[in-house]
Design brief:
five-stranded parallel sheet; alpha/beta; Oxidized Rhodanese, domain 1; 268 residues; 10 strands
Length: 268
């Protein structure tokens, strides 16, 4: 089990300025410059590391990713602490992308809460960071959580696998993978703190849906953004057997995968 997957504002504050810590703000540039940011953070906007013309699903491709992180001054062994202003869902996508391109998984961290939560009690700045470019290079990850269409299709008939739809209940009712359970990623977030709910609450929500630590879990949404948040949460709780369907429902429907309609309540 990896420690410090999700880190507190206090944890980050103690490490600001450390040479081996890169703080990544994935908001749009106008927010980073105009609203302010965590001191020392660098801006890698979400839209710059999402591409339908890149690798599998919405991954940007190895070379664009290398260029982005090199320009941001990220070192290959840096601790990366990512944040956004949307409860962490966009920041989580950055971290999963980093993992899939081989950044050491134990050095990937999601700031618990977002920019608004940080701004309530801590210093922010509008000054541009002075980071030196690096020559960042992708690596093969030690273990990739990615699963493909065929793996998910075969899982439909496997009662030992829990397929999890992380979209909202309305989307789920309009169409989902057969047998999937629905846990909206927002159920795991506290609207007041803007961070994760307490661990006991998270486990209760997940386990009520059959998402238990020793289960084989496959995650999907529409374009793999929302599952990134759920994936990071599960990893923070010590879940080890979690598959990440990068193609998600977009690829699934394009390839003619079967879809059910109706809510879980209706099917009980």
């Amino acid at each position: 089990m990896y420690e410090n997957v999700v880190v507190s504002a206090a944890w980050l504050a103690e490490r600001l300025g450390d040479e081996d810590t890169s703080v990544i703000d994935v908001r749009d540039g106008w927010e980073f410059d105009g609203i302010g940011h965590v001191p020392g953070a660098v801006n890698v906007p979400f839209e710059e590391f999402r591409s339908e013309a890149g690798d599998e699903g919405m991954l940007p491709g190895a070379e664009p990713w290398e260029r982005l992180l090199s320009a941001a001054g990220v070192g290959p062994e840096d601790h990366l602490v990512a944040y956004d202003d949307t409860h962490g869902v966009f920041a989580a996508r950055f971290l999963v992308t980093a993992e899939l391109y081989g950044h050491p998984i134990e050095k990937l961290h999601l700031l618990d809460g977002d920019y608004s939560a940080w701004n309530r009690e801590r210093e922010t700045t509008s000054e541009s960071p002075s980071s030196e470019p690096t020559e960042y290079a992708v690596r093969e990850p030690e273990r990739s959580p990615l699963v493909d269409y065929e793996t998910v299709r075969d899982a439909l008939d496997d009662e030992g696998i829990v397929i999890v739809d992380t979209r909202d209940p309305r989307e789920f009712a309009e169409g989902h993978l057969p047998g999937a359970v629905n846990v909206d990623w927002r159920e795991l977030v506290d609207d007041e703190t803007r961070g994760l709910k307490p661990e006991a609450d998270l486990r209760e929500i997940l386990e009520a849906a059959g998402i238990v630590p020793d289960a084989h879990i496959l995650l999907y949404c529409n374009t793999a953004r929302r599952i990134s948040h759920t994936y990071v949460v599960l990893r923070s709780l010590g879940y080890e057997d979690v598959g990440f369907y990068e193609g998600s429902l977009t690829e699934w429907t394009e390839r003619g995968g079967p879809v059910e309609t109706g809510s879980e309540t209706e099917s009980e």
